[in-house]
Amino acid sequence: MTKGRKTTLEERIEIVSHCIANNKDYGKTAEQYGASYQQIYGWVRKYEKDGMDGLSDRRGKRKDETAMSETEKLCAQLKLKEAEILRLRMENELLKKLEALERGAKSGLSLVRLENKYLATQALNKEKSYPISTLCDIISLNRSSYYNWLHRGQTAQEVKDAALIERICQLYQESNGIFGYRRIRLNLKRRFGVHCNKKRVRRVMNATGLKSVIRRKRPHYVKSTPEITAENILNRNFNADKLNEKWLTDVTEFKYGDSGKMYLSAVLDLKDKIVVAYAIGHSSNNKLIFDTFDAAVAKYPDAKPLFHSDRGFQYTSEVFKAKLDTAGMTQSMSRVGRCIDNGPMEAFWGTLKAERYYLHRFDGYDNLKAAAEQYIAFYNGSRYQEKLGGLAPLEYRNLLLTA
């Protein structure tokens, strides 16, 4: 036990201030100032009970300590208050750090129960040099447990999780953030041979803050006045038993630069969801629709599908009806104001825009057109879909054709 020593009021104020600022670590304070544990403990208790007056020694010849000037008393009080404020600041910053970690789910994959508390303590110790003992006391953390965590090695599961995170981040970056956990899982299986549950992939993405692109809501449907109409034969039956049995078509608009517009027309097969044909132009006119239809017929001249569209003016013209009759196709149209009647086609537009168009700013027609063409090639050949057995549309079509 360290023997006590005589001290002045100024020394006691400094010692108590240091002790309070360091989480009342009486042992280390005693070692640093050469006083006894019991002395420091008593001084802190007296200060907490009577304030600075409790630190004055009124015994015998030392009672003249009370004769401090007002300035000296004020300075001493400020010093003690600064120590208390420092501790409150540490408590506030630690709780904020802990809240940020929990909100960001930084330790979502960790097997350590108090991982966030350990991380918050470590961060503030490195950033602000706050004492570990004080930080641990604020959040009721055992100091020895913290040091055990600090020097622990990675478990086998954590090593596996680290490798999985690396793969997922790679796929996420390559796709410019358009992949969600389902498509990430398919790519892990197809490209890297990694088999894991969808829930685990979602948990990893949540823990690392990776979020797929959220599709924007479509504007309200604008009604049109058709010239020639057809019945809704499709009637929202979006299932097909074979290739080229049901085709959907539509045209959508893209904006570029300050006021430029580009239009994309496409034909979609309901069996494998492949883009059969498409055309791109500056105007949403009859020529754009006719070019798309002619490209689809040229690709599959023997196809006689049910051909479904909305009631846009391009699809209600007599010339387009004649093209359908010549190709031996049956025309079907959505009802007025019922965009869901052409749901899969609308869903494809939403996917294309969410995964490519909304992620970039396009200043010219040529680079926007190139981006649309690249995406359609990616969609047909490399965008794996669970509903197609984990295959891309083109792979699924080739599989059916060779079966």
SSE map:
Layout: H1 9-21, H2 26-33, H3 37-50, H4 70-104, H5 115-128, H6 132-138, H7 143-150, H8 156-174, H9 181-192, H10 198-207, E1 246-256, E2 260-269, E3 275-281, H11 286-299, E4 306-309, H12 318-327, E5 330-333, H13 343-357, H14 365-381, H15 393-402
Parallel strand pairs: 1-4, 4-5
Antiparallel strand pairs: 1-2, 2-3
Can you give a write-up of this model?
The protein has 15 helices and 5 strands. It is 51% helix and 9% strand. The protein has a 5-stranded mixed sheet with strand order 3-2-1-4-5, sandwiched between helices. Strand 4 (306-309), helix 12 (318-327) and strand 5 (330-333) form a beta-alpha-beta unit. The chain has helices at 9-21, 26-33, 37-50, 70-104, 115-128, 132-138, 143-150, 156-174, 181-192, 198-207, 286-299, 318-327, 343-357, 365-381, 393-402, and strands at 246-256, 260-269, 275-281, 306-309, 330-333. The model has no long low-confidence stretch (mean pLDDT 84). It is α/β, with parallel strands linked by helices and 403 residues long. Helix 1 (9-21) packs across helix 3 (37-50), helix 1 runs parallel beside helix 4 (70-104) and helix 4 (70-104) packs across helix 5.
